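agent> Task received from the user: take the single chain below, predict its 3D structure, and emit structure tokens. No templates, no multimer pairing.
agent> Plan: (1) validate residues, (2) run structure prediction, (3) serialize to tokens, (4) report one or two observations.
agent> Step 1 OK, no nonstandard residues flagged.
tool_call: predict_structure(input=
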Amino acid sequence: MNISEPDPLAASHTPFERMGGEAPVRALVDRFYDLMDLEPGFAALRALHPESTDGSRDKLFWFLCGWLGGPQHYTERFGHPMLRARHMPYTIGIKERDQWMACMTQAMTEQALDTALAARLVESFFGTADWMRNRGG
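)
tool_result: status=success, residues=137
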């Protein structure tokens, strides 16, 4: 690497930039929802979503873009995400949290995310997913 070129893994780069921008984030979200539809092990998670996941796909894509340090598509459309409040109508327990995490982890693996970045995201995603629980078990 030429010393004058920016290091793509430098700490100053956001996760959004490290992933490569909107197209890879969209691919991750689409794979996440495809897996949810395809894998029987994600049935409880899938049951929380409407028959068509088109709207859910868009909302997660918009949210993740901003959460990863990119464009604030979600907040521009809906205001503050208020994740816990928006998910309160859905029963989310340990099983649903774990299925969400397994589905997202598999999607990240299949999308070949940088392993260091994926590890950071898994840690952050778990904290958020656990905070979303509104029932035990």
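agent> Step 4: summary for the user.
Helices lie at 15-19, 22-38, 43-47, 54-67, 73-78, 83-87, 94-110, 115-131.
agent> Done.
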